[in-house]
Amino acid sequence: MSGQGERLARAGLSRCAEPEDLAVEAALGVLGAERLWDIVRGSAASQEERHVVEAALLERGAREASAAAGLATLRERLRGRAAEADPVRDLENVARLGGGLLLPGEEGWPLPLNDLGPGAPVALWWRGARPPVAEPGGWLGVVGTRDPTAYGLHVTSVIAGGAAAAGAVIVSGGALGIDAAAHRAALESGPPAEAGRPLVTACVLAGGVDRLYPASNARLLQHLAREQLLLSEHPPGCAPTRWRFLSRNRLIAALGAGLVVVEGRWRSGSLSTAHRAAELGRWVGAVPGPVTSGTSEGPHRLIREGAAELVVRPEDALGAIGLLRGASPPRQEALPGLAEPSPIDGLSEPEARVFEALPRRGVTSLDRLVLAAGLAAGEALGALHSLLARGRAERRDGGWARTRH
Question: Is the pLDDT score of 376 beyond 60?
Fold first, then answer.
């Protein structure tokens, strides 16, 4: 069991740092959570500490100038959020919600997340009838479009429901469309709702476990929070953002022994989840659909390029994840060329964070932008000027905004 200092430090870092932050990952690996949290909150870093973080960043592929300023930039980046962070309050809040916080190495920490390496969550917040299990065998990710066809909803019900009835735990993201249909199918087809009912579905959120987004799925998510399991790498109160949705996909990809894409357009985010799953060696399947349907373009692309196996019934997925006739999950080769276009394609990490933090309506100040993006002021200003040159941001009414189209 981790000590209280480690728990508070990781709780605090999870509020201040965005997922997959290279500098945070590097510093955490060489300094440890407690020391990094002290530095973020103002403790002076020694020359040796600066050097080991610089070396870790260089090893991870950072540029020399960025690596040299690594610890100082990281502290400036997180300083604003750290000043407002209260990990004790966050832990009390999640306990009141009927949940808790899991740290790497603790009992219950989902071991498949370790396959993410340095990109694994700093900590994992949960809410539900039970915490995660350490080795979630037979978990199956089911993802797809937010605007499904009647066909897609039917197939999701058949595949997710059939898999749940056979003992699989359905993992998805709680979004409109295929995600919600997969959760509902698992609830309807899993073991009867009685004392000791096993876990049948888990939902990974892009915000805190109290931020039940989207609002139109609130009733479903409330049920999952009571009877099943909500997971997030963000503490209570954190809002979902596009950056966090994209990062959330890697957790869905990692938690399952396999992943099924039901419907998705050519630019669907579900293809990026398939890409991450394949990178992690997970089995990937896709459901074919009518050739006249735009929502079938994504799965057809995966199948045509040999990136996914064709799935037409629950048994196709059950066999692949080892829940049919004792089969063992096959290892999926990495998928070439599946990174899907999005509004942040071609942007650096600071540029992408600032772009996503810019309001779609109205304007925001630089100070608010720095907090929303989780960057140092210099980083945010540099990213803003780069976006300005690209025509993606503009000065308007005394603040900053996305360029009008």
Answer: yes
